[in-house]
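S.,

Sequence below, as promised.
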Amino acid sequence: MTDPLSRLIAIGAWPPRRQPISAGCWRRWRPTRKIFRERQEELEKQLIAAPATTWPEAAEKARYRLGLLASTAIAQDPRRKRLSANVLEDFVSLSEAKDA
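The prediction came back faster than expected:
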């Protein structure tokens, strides 16, 4: 399974927009937003459909959830940002250690 965050980046939906969107831009962006929501729902159905069978799969699901959390206001606290970054680094190092 491809990294969910990579999928969001590939469709141009990450990082989330932080600036106001004009009315004209909003009308042009609305169909893209709908497609993004549909793809996000499909991805989430896949992630929910079955439990992870390996640690890397579990880490991928957690990475996706951390990505969603990162876009919220509460996650902007520097300590929480660092905690999320540390968890992601742990996933990478533990996955590499398991592969070795």
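The mean pLDDT is 78.

Coffee later?
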